[in-house]
UniProtKB/TrEMBL annotation, chain A:
The lineage of its organism: Eukaryota, Metazoa, Chordata, Craniata, Vertebrata. This is Nucleoporin NDC1. One of its GO terms (biological process) is mRNA transport. Residues 380-412, 481-504 are annotated as: Disordered. PANTHER family: NUCLEOPORIN NDC1 (PTHR13269). GO terms for cellular component: nuclear membrane; nuclear pore transmembrane ring.
Automatic annotation (TrEMBL), chain B:
One of its GO terms (cellular component) is nuclear pore. SUPFAM superfamilies: WD40 repeat-like. Gene3D superfamilies: YVTN repeat-like/Quinoprotein amine dehydrogenase (2.130.10.10). This is Aladin. Residues 133-481 form the Aladin seven-bladed propeller domain. GO terms for biological process: nucleocytoplasmic transport.
Length: 669, 519
């Protein structure tokens, strides 16, 4: 209740206003953008003067005003959708089937539909603005027998459908490229300068994206264009003018001016939407300065130590951590507040709350990494100790591993990704916590057709399916997908390799049933493994699980920075020695995390760098978060060791950690 | 105000500067000096003959082959591949017998137009007409970079190891505590102009190359002498080459790179491989970067008479137009409050102060209104037994020791005149309570060796340690032993015994060159 109330104040007072401001700016930018579009859309190479005079009259006309109002409405809608769908923790699909699941999700369907409709509206406005042969949907014509009737203007229809297509592909590429992910920059800049700096990129992106979309659209229209045309003719009672050449032919579409107008309209559409998105990102990631402490109780819940501990909304936690990292770096006066003691009592409440929250974040990441590593390792061990029925080469296993989890009959097991073990919450996102990026859960409506078809044979093949629902058999399944089982999701520590092994030997005794089941499973697996399409869909994307593991690592990076800068500053600024009490735990926490991160980077695919793509509006910074975390962690430890130097020898620490720390003191890491 | 007249005269030929002790520079003769230097593990010698250099450039091999007649299409494709759009136009214009008349004429016109435009652009920013190598040499902090055996040098900010970039495009890392000296080579590592170690990290070394930035991760515990190119991270951006200067932020999180042809300065988040371009109109490029030791400001000079001082919290900048030429070099005081810089064509050192009022949350610090001249290093003639030596003139680079007590100035000299050699002049400085500048002396090497590059050791215990790279490929270290005024020292072992200040034999050291008046 308490946190709900708090999230309320932040979303209500800050996020909504920021979104509103961004939308307002996007609407204000619409008239200049539209004028540029008017000039470009009506441009003719041989009559430049005429073009400009025509444009000026057009800008003043009533139809232009009307379309401008419609466009404003679209921008408002786009801004609202941005606010509704944005997330600071990206959703990472670990296999193609999971990505497909995301694309077919009802929520995404609503999004796509909205974008389609908005695309049609924008394209209609574009048609009115360009004028000429595009202006109206119907026009009076005479049939061959001489009777007057309304005919369909296919140019107008082509443009409208182009808008719908571009809108749809925009929403699809938004899912694939995580366009709703809002990333935070390492460099702070004023909003105007950031906007100015990103503007060329937006222009370039929208132009290239529009080019690709229109190319695809033309191909689609060439083959399927007759369907919507016939439908429109039928519903609106329009006729096809037989004297005009139809457009869904090669000769009809080989029209340079038509292509130019389609492209410029698509560019305009994408540009206005990208601008709205860009402004939203800039406004929402702006630094928010939380008070460190306050003497008023109603403001107290808005103070940094309180806000940091909130789980919801995630944007609040992220902004609080960002503020912590910045204040610890730049602001001595606010640092002094962190180090201060409470007035009656003399307790360092601020420091305690902040350090505790940061340490718990880091410990959480460490635990996640260890659990992931253990699952990967247990997996290998289980395979080597497996019974005869499971005798396969490792390469085979890795190839077919994708299907295994789906084959295993465990409808009541909660399959969870490492990322979703951590309480992932997407603001406004309808994805239930069970809808893990690895495996779309079986109950969800969108995934069921594909999944049920696949799971059905397994269930039919095992008539005793219900009776052998023992967890031991479940554990036998090699977990190359490295999902953690329900034991972890319930909060209990991950099963140690020993505890996994002992039930295995037990279960191999009543093996008649199990063997049968295993054989069946193998057969199905082999059968499915040979199907190329299924392999393609279910194969794990390389390094995706690593990305998913570090999806929210921006928070950890700030926590590390904040802690290390505060500890560094405490060397000279901390009058009461409040930091010293936490120094051993901070150091050991960082060293344990360092060890876990080092171990993780030894796994295959973990240290392979993704391809850098600069020309896309989709943020790809989440792909490199793990490298950023590794570098920040090392720098943070070095910052503490460089500041304290040999004084660290006086800190209580285990021998192993001391050895590790000595490496840092000698600059040998 | 002719400051150099107060300096002690340069050493007679054959003597080299050894160290500073008891407030005076000690010198020694060459033979004993060499013995001493050869015993020291950190003094290095790279004779030019030992380096395998590229004998000829790749494009020149074309002349060795017979002319072979290809079809126009093939030639056009080759021209497009080799020379881009301009090459294609050139090819079409030259083969006017084969192409239609209108095509050759129009391409000739386009070519002429392009040339006009580029010459106009070049007249606005003359440095753009230079070739890549010449541009690097022009803007490098190293004196006579293209002919220098040691092209770049960097001390590690925390330990006693350093990286040396050589003429043959290799980088060697020396560590007195380790027997291995890793040699770094990479396909893209060409014409290295600057190297810098990442602060608060043991292994990362940033290298500014002709076409890209390389970040080497050299494991200090590794025994390998040739780390593979897989250890290097390549950062490049179209239009951002050659990279002329790099600077790590002192807290080790960001790396800034600059190119004289790119008006944008790039701030890299190296681990995440993401970058932010900081674009400002004017100047025509960025040539030299220097981050203040406290991390709050960044000096960025441009090829024209303008430099900028960036405030690194919100990344806004102050423009500083110069009167005469571009800002050649600059250095910051240890607390980041004072910037010393030099301007091309003027033999003076300017000073700017930045006062950041503590506790104020506004991000722009109110800077000063004008720069003050703190030293005049115009040419001065010294009478030495070997004849008159003229010292002074234009300044190539500045280096300030991390405690703010010694300032080394590399004077360009005149390469044509033998009597005007390049010279390192060292000043004693004090930043608190008031800024003071006192003469210390000249640092000289072996006869015939000219200083090319210098850098102070970032954490020398007993004072300051100046590392100088000489034109003959030798790297020497000149220690300045002194007790820091700011920090009280108790029982410094290893430093030479102190003597009374009044025992100083010469009185010129007492004369202050510049003392700031407290207003």
């Amino acid at each position: 209740m308490f946190s709900a109330e708090q999230s309320c104040w932040f979303v209500r007072k800050v996020i909504c206003w920021r979104a509103a401001a961004s939308i307002a700016w996007a609407v204000l930018l619409l008239p200049p953008t539209t004028s540029v579009f008017v000039i470009l859309g009506g441009f003719s190479l041989f009559h430049p003067i005429q073009t400009i005079s025509e444009c000026l009259t057009l800008i003043g006309s009533a139809s232009a005003m009307l379309s401008l109002i419609l466009l404003c409405g679209v921008i408002l809608m786009v801004g609202f959708l941005n606010l509704e769908y944005y997330t600071v923790i990206p959703t990472i699909a670990c296999s193609r089937i999971a990505l497909l699941g995301q694309l077919l999700h009802p929520h995404q369907f609503v999004n796509s539909l909205a974008h389609c409709i908005m695309g049609v509206i924008v394209a209609g406005c574009c048609a009115v603005i360009i004028g000429g042969r595009y202006e109206t949907l119907g026009y009076p014509c005479t049939q061959t027998d001489g009777s007057p009737q309304m005919c369909l203007n296919e140019y107008h229809l082509l443009l409208l459908l182009a808008g719908a297509f571009v809108g749809f592909s925009h929403s699809l590429s938004g899912v694939i490229h995580n366009m709703n992910y809002v990333s935070f920059h390492a460099v702070q800049q004023y909003k105007y300068l950031r906007f100015k700096g990103s503007l060329p990129l937006v222009v370039k992106c929208s132009a290239t994206q529009a080019l690709y979309s229109i190319r695809n659209y033309i191909v689609v229209y060439l083959f399927l264009g007759y369907i919507p045309r016939a439908w429109i003719c039928k519903t609106l009672d329009l006729h096809l003018n037989s004297s005009v050449h139809p457009l869904d032919t090669v000769t009809g579409l080989l029209d340079l001016s038509l292509f130019y107008h389609l492209w410029i309209s698509a560019t305009f559409l994408l540009f206005t939407w990208y601008i709205t998105l860009l402004l939203f990102r800039i406004f929402v990631t702006e630094v928010y300065s939380f008070p460190v402490q306050s003497s008023f109780t109603d403001v107290a819940i808005q103070c940094l130590p309180k806000v940091l501990t909130d789980k919801q909304p995630v944007i609040l936690k992220f902004l609080a951590l960002q503020d912590l990292a910045l204040l610890s770096q730049h602001s001595p006066s606010r640092r002094a507040e962190v180090f201060s003691l409470s007035q009656p009592g003399g307790h360092p409440h601020n420091w305690n709350a902040i350090s505790k929250e940061c340490l718990s974040l880091l410990a959480d990441l460490t635990q996640r990494l260890v659990a992931y590593h253990d699952t990967v390792q247990t997996n290998g061990r289980a395979k080597s100790l497996s019974t005869g029925s499971e005798r396969k080469t490792s390469s085979e296993t890795s190839v077919t591993s994708g299907t295994e989890d789906l084959m295993s009959p465990r409808p009541n097991l909660l399959m969870k990704t490492p990322a979703s073990v951590f309480s992932r919450s997407i603001v406004g996102g309808p994805l239930s916590p069970l809808t893990a990026p690895f495996t779309p859960d079986l109950n969800s409506p969108f995934a069921s057709p594909a999944m049920r078809r696949l799971t059905a044979p397994a269930e039919q093949c095992s008539p005793w399916h219900g009776s052998v629902q023992s967890p031991h058999i479940m554990r036998r399944v090699p977990k190359l997908w490295s999902t953690s089982t329900d034991s972890q999701s319930n909060g209990s520590p991950p099963p140690s390799p020993a505890s996994v092994l002992s039930p295995k030997q037990e279960s191999s005794k009543p093996s008649l049933l199990a063997l049968f089941l295993q054989n069946r499973k193998e057969q199905v697996k082999h059968f499915l493994g040979k199907r190329v399409l299924i392999m393609y869909l279910f194969n794990k994307l390389p390094e995706a699980s690593s990305q998913a593991l570090f999806a929210d690592s921006q928070a950890h990076i700030w926590a590390l920075e904040g802690l290390s800068y505060l500890v560094e500053a405490s060397f000279s600024e901390d009058q009461f020695g409040v930091v010293q009490t936490a120094l051993p735990s901070i150091l050991s926490c960082m060293l344990v995390l360092q060890e876990a991160v080092d171990r993780h980077f030894k796994l295959p695919h973990a240290s392979s760098k993704p391809v850098r793509s600069t020309s896309s509006m989709g943020e790809s910074s989440y792909k490199t978060l793990r490298f950023a975390l590794r570098a920040t962690l090392k720098t943070a430890i070095y910052r503490i060791t460089t500041t304290f130097g040999d004084h660290l020898n006086a800190v209580q620490m285990s021998a192993e950690h001391r050895k590790r720390l000595q490496q840092f003191l000698e600059y040998k890491e | 105000m002719c400051s150099l007249a107060l300096f002690p005269p340069p050493l007679p030929s054959g003597q080299t500067t050894l160290c500073e002790s008891n407030n005076q520079l000690l010198s020694g003769f060459n033979t004993e000096d060499r013995l001493k230097q050869d015993s020291s593990p950190l003094s290095l010698y790279f004779p030019r003959e030992s380096l395998k250099l590229h004998s000829r450039t790749e494009s020149s091999s074309k002349a060795a082959f017979l002319d072979h007649s290809e079809t126009l299409w093939m030639r056009s494709a080759a021209a497009w591949r080799d020379g881009g759009f301009k090459g294609l136009l050139n090819e079409i214009t030259n083969s006017h017998t084969e192409v239609p008349k209108w095509l050759s004429v129009s391409s000739g016109c386009t070519l002429a137009l392009l040339r006009r435009f580029s010459s106009f652009h070049g007249s606005l920013f003359p440095h753009l007409t230079l070739s890549c190598e010449d541009m690097i040499a022009e803007f490098s902090q190293v004196l006579n970079w293209s002919d220098c055996v040691v092209r770049a040098f960097a001390w590690h900010p925390h330990t006693d190891k350093f990286a040396v970039a050589l003429l043959d495009d290799s980088i060697k890392i020396y560590n007195p505590k380790s027997a291995t000296t890793p040699t770094l080579k990479h396909r893209l590592q060409k014409s290295v102009v600057a190297v810098q170690w990442k602060p608060l990290c043991a292994s990362a070394l940033a290298v500014a190359c002709q076409n890209c930035l390389l970040i080497w991760h050299v494991d200090p515990c590794s025994l390998s002498t040739r780390p593979s190119s897989g250890c290097a991270q390549v950062l490049s951006l179209p239009g951002h080459s050659p990279v002329a200067s790099i600077a790590w932020s002192p807290n080790g999180s960001l790396l800034v790179s600059a190119s004289p042809v790119d008006t944008a300065m790039i701030v890299w988040d190296v681990a995440a491989e993401s970058c932010v371009e900081l674009q400002r109109v004017g100047g025509g490029g960025v040539t030299f970067l220097s981050w203040s030791p406290d991390g709050s400001h960044l000096l960025a000079s441009t090829p024209s008479a303008l430099f900028r001082v960036w405030e690194t919290r919100m990344w806004t900048c102050e423009r500083w137009p110069c009167l005469k030429g571009r800002c050649q070099s600059g250095c910051w005081s240890p607390d980041g409050s004072r910037l010393l810089f030099t301007v091309q064509g003027e033999p003076v050192i300017y000073s700017l102060t930045f006062t950041e009022t503590p506790g104020v949350t506004t991000c722009t610090s109110k800077g000063p209104q004008a720069a003050a001249v703190v030293a005049d290093l115009s040419e001065t003639t010294f009478n030495t037994p070997d004849g008159d030596i003229i010292v002074g003139g234009e300044i190539q680079s500045l280096a300030w020791d991390p405690r703010g007590e010694r300032l080394a100035v590399l004077l360009k000299g005149d390469p044509q005149a033998a009597a005007r050699p390049p010279m390192i002049a060292v000043f004693k400085t004090r930043t608190k309570p008031i800024f003071e500048l006192l003469p210390c002396g000249f640092v000289q090497g072996e006869p015939g060796a000219e200083p090319r590059l210098m850098q102070f050791h970032p954490n020398f215990q007993h004072g300051a340690l100046l590392t100088v790279c000489w034109s003959n490929g030798r790297i020497t270290h000149v220690p300045f032993y002194f007790l820091s005024a700011g920090i009280p020292h108790f029982g410094l072992d290893g430093s030479p015994s102190l003597q009374r200040p009044q025992e100083r034999p010469a009185d010129y050291a007492n004369q202050s060159l510049f003392t700031e008046l407290i207003s």
